[in-house]
Write a structure and sequence with these properties.
This protein is of the alpha+beta class. It has three helices and five strands; from the N terminus they run E-H-E-E-H-E-E-H. The protein has a five-stranded antiparallel sheet with strand order 4-1-3-2-5. A hairpin with a 5-residue loop joins strand 2 and strand 3. Helix 1 crosses helix 3. It is globular and about 45 Å long.
């Protein structure tokens, strides 16, 4: 997810209850997973009932999804097939993106929100225990689906 935060007009993710306003870099960590597993996990979390999932960002190539989780999660994150990056205090900024047109030719797509902060259906961050469970279930579903081929 190297493109996240690399955009020149990037703004920080809004603080809880301040969607759309400028603020200092918020305190959260970022769990990144392959897009297929991430999309399955988002579906699992949403089916479990709102509000169970926080903002989710995708990289420009749509290879990975990133879940915003509480600060400190990275210190104990050990889920195979995923990574958790400590971002609090490092100024990583995520864009609050409007709808963007498709890039021309072979230009890479910019990173963007799958579930933006403050859209009414998201919590400020995703509970890491709930996310770990959803990612595990998603991995099992993918393995079962791939085993049926």
């Amino acid at each position: 997810m190297s493109e996240i935060g690399a955009q020149s007009a990037a703004r920080p993710a809004p603080a809880p209850g301040t969607a759309g306003t400028e603020s200092a870099a918020e305190a959260w960590d970022l769990v990144t997973v392959p897009v297929r597993q991430g999309l399955e996990a988002v579906d699992i979390l949403r089916r479990a009932g709102a509000p169970a999932v926080g903002p989710v960002v995708h990289d420009g190539t749509c290879d990975t999804l990133g879940f915003l989780v509480p600060p400190g999660t990275a210190a104990g994150w050990d889920m195979p097939g995923s990574a958790c990056t400590r971002t609090s205090g490092r100024g990583l900024r995520l864009p609050e993106l409007p709808e963007l047109p498709e890039p021309a030719g072979g230009a890479p797509r910019p990173a963007g929100w799958l579930l933006p902060p403050g859209d009414g259906d998201t919590d400020p961050v995703t509970d890491p225990v709930v996310l770990r469970r959803a990612l595990g279930e998603a991995a099992r579903l993918i393995e079962a689906a791939d085993g049926c081929r």
